[in-house]
What does this fold into?
Amino acid sequence: MKGCPVCGDGEAGGSEPPATRRTSVEKHTQFSVFLVNKPGVLSQVFRELAKRKINIHALAMMDSMEHGVLRLIVDDPGSARAVFGSLNIHFGETEVLA
It folds into this structure.
């Protein structure tokens, strides 16, 4: 199994000892996806990402009563853009170091 490109872990569960983990920093595209705070909206995004076999390497979610912002780093930014566009979801992109 291939390791996580964001954190450098080996197989799931971080089986590599800390001394052998990757220490280099790379640029990644982070998406900020703006969602309405309604039941099923977040699961719809994840379902579409899964259908296209887009892996999520990192995520964070911030929500309020009316809306939420989902921040994601994925393995295929181009396909993720297409998913957000097909769902008519507003999103932004930022280059981040990880």
In short: The helical segments are 41-51, 77-86. The mean pLDDT is 87. Strands lie at 27-36, 56-63, 67-74, 91-97.
